[in-house]
Amino acid sequence: MTWGDDLAAWWxxxxxxxxxxxxxxxxxxxxxxxxxPGERWLDLGCGEGRMMRALSAAGADPVGCDVSPRLAAxxxxxxxxxxxxxxxxxxxxxxxxxxxLAVLVLEHLPDLAPLFAAAARVVxxxxxxxxxxxxxxxxxxxxxxxxxxxxxxxLWRWGRYLEEGSTAEPAGAGSVEFLHRPLGALLTLAAGxxxxxxxxxxxxxxxxxxxxxxxxxxxxxxxxxxGVRWRNPA
Length: 234
Ligand SMILES: C[S@@+](CC[C@H](N)C(=O)[O-])C[C@H]1O[C@@H](n2cnc3c(N)ncnc32)[C@H](O)[C@@H]1O
Description:
By secondary structure, this protein is an alpha/beta fold. The chain has helices spanning 5-17, 20-33, 50-57, 69-75, 113-122, 136-139, 183-192, 207-212, 214-217, and strands at residues 40-44, 61-66, 81-83, 97-103, 123-134, 144-147, 154-157, 165-171, 174-180, 196-203, 225-231. It has one domain: 3-Layer(aba) Sandwich (Rossmann fold), CATH 3.40.50.150. The chain is 32% helix and 30% strand.
């Protein structure tokens, strides 16, 4: 299945039912965005508006965009939300926003160069691009936890980490494609489009999640999320 209304119902249920999003994803996104009160923020692939609500609570003024009309309509309760397919941001003028945020979206876009270029145009000089994605260690085809038979320690198999690739993960009655890019490829691509790296944060399983799931508790030292903040040149 491709993103659009096909996956909208699954995603709304996923967000509602998984407390890990509010416990780990939202705090990491707010940390890397570091949005200031009064700033105008663009939420790229806003889904049903979870990050727009979090940005509003932080005092920022969000506008969302999403390829799914159903998700954009739901996000409309949190602020203006446009139906559009990334990387197209032609509906925004140059320097229109102070920052752009993409949370769990880059893994679903086949070509990131046009998105980095479009974001550089619509974010003002010295403005921010912030992303949170599944850590590339997790999206690598063939990667998985493995248990050491000697002592029960949970280790991580890297799979084909060094190559770009994709995996299909279960989503409702179907599946959704996750595109894998090694960390170095992602950072080099953004730098090539002029974005200056300001922070890269790798996060493992959160305390609350580990408390609920003993198998995840044994993976606390394994990175699961990556947050990055870039700055647009002056
Ligand atoms: C995993 S969800 C994350 C939603 C939201 N950012 C959040 O954190 O709650 C991925 C989102 O990206 C959107 N999306 C995927 N491909 C897109 C594209 N080419 N243009 C715009 N939105 C897209 C999907 O519709 C979906 O809402």
